[in-house]
Structures are given as C-alpha cells and as structure tokens.
Amino acid sequence: MSWVKKCKLPAIETIQYEGHSCIEFEDLWKALYNSFNFAQMCEVDIHVLDEIPRKPAKEWNLFSK
Questions:
Q1: Environment class of 17 (CB within 10 Å of its CB; exposed 0-12, middle 13-18, buried 19+)
Q2: pLDDT of res. 36
Q3: In the predicted model, what is the mean pLDDT of the chain?
Q4: What is the rounded CA–CA span in Å between residue 62 and residue 60?
Q5: Beta strands in the chain (DSSP E)
Q6: SS3 37
Q7: Are 24 and 15 in contact, with CB atoms under 8 Å apart?
Q8: The predicted structure's pLDDT at residue 1
Q9: C-alpha–C-alpha distance, residues 21 and 28, integer Å
Q10: Which percentage of the chain shows pLDDT scores above 70?
Q11: What pLDDT was estimated at residue 53?
Q12: Contact status, residue 21 vs residue 15, Cβ threshold 8 Å
C-alpha cells in the first residue's frame, strides 16, 4: 500500500517581499499586510470576466426533503 508509506515532500521556496525572504512571522505579516493594502487601492477591470464562456446552469438532484 503505497499511500501509507513515507512520502517525499515537494521542494518549496520562501515568500519574498522587497527582495528579502519572509522567514520570521513578523516579516510575513508585514509582507501580507502591505500587499493587501496596496492591492486594495488598485482599480479592477471586471470586463475580463466577459471573456469567460458561459456554461448552462447545472441541475442539482434532490438530496434531502
């Protein structure tokens, strides 16, 4: 049973912010906080969603009364 054996974890990279690795929790918090605040001031063009083809609505089977 291969799913119960020890597995090798994938290689990961640290989060980078302003050219520095966010190793400490305080650095990570600062990076996420500043990124969110910057993105909050950016305008969003919702017309890019018009390019996504529409699909018909899916009917759901009843699963409770």
A1: middle
A2: 92
A3: 86
A4: 6
A5: 16-17, 20-21
A6: helix
A7: no
A8: 59
A9: 9
A10: 94
A11: 92
A12: yes
Q: Which residues contact 14 (CB under 8 A, 6 or more apart)?
A: 21, 22, 23
Res 7 pLDDT > 70: yes
> At a CB cut-off of 8 Å and minimum separation 6, what does 65 contact?
none
Q: Which of 31, 12, 9 is nearest to 22 (CA)?
A: 31
For residue 62, what pLDDT is reported?
83
Among 28, 25, 46, smallest CA distance to 36 is for: 28
Nearest residue to 26 via CA among 13, 39, 17, 37: 17
- Give the mean model confidence (pLDDT) for residues 19-32: 90
Nearest to 13 by CA among 1, 21, 5, 2: 21
